[in-house]
From TrEMBL:
Residues 1-22 form the signal peptide. This is Porin. InterPro entries: Porin_dom_sf, Porin_O/P. It holds the Pfam family Porin_O_P. It comes from the Bacteria. Keywords: Signal. The keyword Cell membrane does not apply.
Length: 392
């Protein structure tokens, strides 16, 4: 374990010891310590996600094929709070391999004309699925319209992040360096913006619309569109980390969002059109889209976070927990003949989620993927995967 991780543990132990000096301590949604007047607050949270993978069909891949294994997808500790009108967040993932590689969100924030300003490392304002917490996403991995595909290598960035909104609309604007703390220093810069509107917004029915745009300019060639999804980033992957666009000098992307719910029925879809520019090669266009849906067998309804414009996990109504059936289809297409490894990559997933209580969730998924072409021929593979998750 690196010195950074020891330091994070020491900070955690010290933070846990402070409630005796505070006015009030709560345990709902994590350990919260705050003063009676609400001016000072500290919250400690975390998540453990333990995955298992069983390859059921990988003959097309040859040796070594998909890996049937187990591993920790995430093991995070989060501390956030506020003091004197300022807020902060520190989140470290102990599965991060490199020094600094465990840093996720780490920022200092305040209100500016009643808008939220954060300075530090956070996610740029892109699509709905990217901005949804890994504790709340419906599937074990995010689709290609995120840093698991089109925005590979740029899930987090360092810079300025401003957001706000009203009862049924939001906006977010970010300007940043393309560096995150697990990467070398860079002069690459970028910007991203997102706006959302919910014309229908009630406890039982929601219709969500969203639009995002981003432009990134790496100082050196950045990472192209790579499929780092489907079966976990650190374990067996469908055809490995397959590239569908080369390393760009400039990447411009536009995204559309459509999502909603009607009682126990939920649906979500996104489309992203990206352009990769590199003087040494032809411009490459990448289109990706996905559609996913779910149904709560036990009657719950997914809550909608109107401030962040994302959906969250349901809270079980009964002692036996909540059960959700789910399905997704995801595809990413590159310019014909220009993709370095593939022209089209797609997969579908069917599965179920069991929410034992507000903190514990089990996820069960069967995935089948296709890469065309890959080494001159189509490749198909499938995997059964499960997750045990505890979040607080």
């Amino acid at each position: 374990m690196s010195n950074l991780k020891y330091a994070a543990l020491a900070a955690f132990i010290g933070a846990v010891a402070t409630p005796a000096m505070a006015d009030k301590a709560e345990t709902k949604g994590g350990l919260v310590v705050k003063t009676d007047d609400g001016r000072f607050e500290m919250k400690i949270g975390g998540r453990i996600q333990f995955d298992g993978y069983l390859a059921t069909d990988d003959d097309d891949l040859g040796s070594p094929g998909l890996i049937s294994t187990t591993g920790f997808r995430r093991a995070r500790l989060t501390m956030e709070g506020k003091a004197y009108g300022w807020s902060y967040k520190f989140e470290n993932d102990f599965t991060g391999a490199a020094a600094g590689g465990g840093f996720r969100e780490m920022w200092i924030g305040t209100k500016v004309f009643d808008q939220n300003l954060r300075i530090g490392q956070a996610k740029p304002y892109r699509g709905m699925e990217e901005l949804t917490s890994s504790n709340e996403i419906d599937f074990m991995e995010r689709p290609f319209a995120t840093a698991s595909g089109v925005f590979t290598g740029n899930q987090f960035a360092q810079g300025l992040f401003l957001d706000g909104g009203g009862a049924n609309w939001t906006y977010g604007i970010s300007a940043y360096s393309l560096r995150n703390e697990d990467a070398a220093a860079t002069e690459g810069v970028g910007g991203a913006a997102r706006v959302t509107f919910a014309p229908i917004l009630s406890d039982e029915t929601v219709l969500h619309l969203g639009l995002s745009a981003s432009s990134d300019h790496p100082s050196d060639n950045g990472t192209g569109a790579v499929t780092r999804t489907a079966s976990g980033r650190q374990f067996g992957r469908i055809a490995g980390a397959t590239a569908i666009a080369t390393t760009p000098e400039e990447r411009t992307a536009f995204g559309l969002e459509l999502a909603g719910k009607a009682g126990p029925i939920y649906g979500q879809a996104e489309y992203v059109m990206a352009d990769y520019k590199n003087e040494a090669t032809e411009d490459e266009d990448v289109d990706t889209w996905y559609v996913q849906a779910s149904y709560m067998l036990t009657g719950e309804s997914k809550p909608y976070d109107a401030k962040k414009a994302v959906f969250k996990s349901p809270k079980p109504n009964g002692a036996m927990g909540a059960w959700e059936l789910k399905a997704r289809y995801d595809v990413m297409e590159g310019s014909e003949g220009t993709g370095p490894a593939a022209e089209e990559i797609s997969y579908w997933i069917v599965g179920a989620n069991w929410f034992v209580n507000p903190n514990v969730r089990f996820m069960f998924e069967y995935l089948q993927g296709n890469v065309s072409p890959f080494a001159g021929a189509d490749v198909e593979a499938s995997v059964f995967q499960v997750r045990t998750q505890f979040g607080f």
